[in-house]
Amino acid sequence: MYVKDAVAKHFDELCRERGICYNELANISGVPPTTVYCMMKPERRKLHIDVIKKLCDGLEISLAEFFSGPIFDELEQEIR
């Protein structure tokens, strides 16, 4: 799994755990819903650390908490 897939999957898991949809995540984070939906689509994933930070702020977690999940411990090497 690559980092952009892991980020999207982790946000999806956090939304499911908290019972919120992507639109609500966008609203509580001050991010346009289209940005969140684009980030979640595999064919259009664009990641920007400032957006990830805002989404974490909306979920009231730190970047360190977000990236400390086990999903990030098993990432594939992206440099080939």
From TrEMBL:
One GO molecular-function entry: DNA binding
Alphabetical list of PROSITE patterns matching this protein: HTH_CROC1
Domain of life: Bacteria
Pfam families, per database record: HTH_26
Coiled coil: none
Listed name of the protein: Transcriptional regulator
Domain HTH cro/C1-type, residue spans: 44-66
InterPro entries named among the record's database cross-references: Cro/C1-type_HTH, Lambda_DNA-bd_dom_sf
